[in-house]
Design brief:
Elements (H helix, E strand, L loop, with lengths): L4 H17 L9 H23 L9 H19 L5 H25 L4 H19 L9 H4 L7 H15 L2 H11 L1 H6 L4 H27 L10 H12 L10 H20 L4 H30 L2
Helix pairs in contact: 1-12, 2-7, 2-10, 2-11, 2-12, 3-4, 3-5, 3-10, 4-5, 4-10, 7-10, 8-10, 11-12, 11-13
Length: 308
Amino acid sequence: MSGLGFGAVLLVVLLIVNIWLNPVRFAPRALGTLFGLAAPLTAAALASTPAILGGRGGIDISVGPVMGFVNAILVTVLIGQFDLASPWIVIPAAVVIGATIGAINGGLATFVRIQPIVATLGTYLVLTGLTLTLVPAPTGTIPDWLRLFSQTLSIVPLAGIALVWGLLRLTPYHGLLMATGSDDRAAYTAGVNVVLVRWLAYVLTGAFAGIASLSLTALIGSADPSIGPTYTLLAISAVALGGVSLAGGRGGLINAAIGAADIFLLQTAITYFNASTFVLEIIYGAVLVLAVAVMAIQEQWLQRGRTP
């Protein structure tokens, strides 16, 4: 939970501003819908976190396309073609597809030793092409139980990710992941299987992206080839804004969730004034640069404090 400072302060400020601008939208009775709107971005940010924590530039830019690809498979194939709409089939399928893609990304980045951003860029392009081939235009419908994930049950996919991460924190793996991200050479010297630890981080990122696709599917109510990739850079921005070190080894899912809330509230406040998308992108970039600068300063202070 280190590095919460800037993101947490910004969250409080943005929440106050949004409640002041639009109290009706933030009334208790509207929170279910509000959480449903924020859930895909929040889940995407949570999904991006494990690979980043593993260090060595582990930025997985395929998270958004994974969400879009799983969305297309679920809606057009499982639900549309085979009429398999049960949550006992759809949810495990989303997790398995995401984890499989994560395993491929992890294999390229750790075993083949391709730079993570290059490896996941390749996956990004392949998945984007496959999704467009499978679903050239928005199509399909979803069952009522899945639609609830954008309303009263919008917290369920996020709670699922949090539960898995919470259980992992009770195992030695979490400590090994943080140690690997902080200093992989020291971890390797201490006997940690650095390659396996990092590979599992990508598998987790893929599995969480599969869960995030459920929130996305619930929100849009169909298969749409163009929406998933839009979450990629926003998710990474949220991770950095929340205080997760992009160098690895510092931060956690709480940081990512706070950063996602910051971006969502920032977007809500700006759209209240009917600002253009270009203005929104400029503000995203400015806030992200500020957040990364604050993180860099904090890390320099920490390093100075450790220096004898």
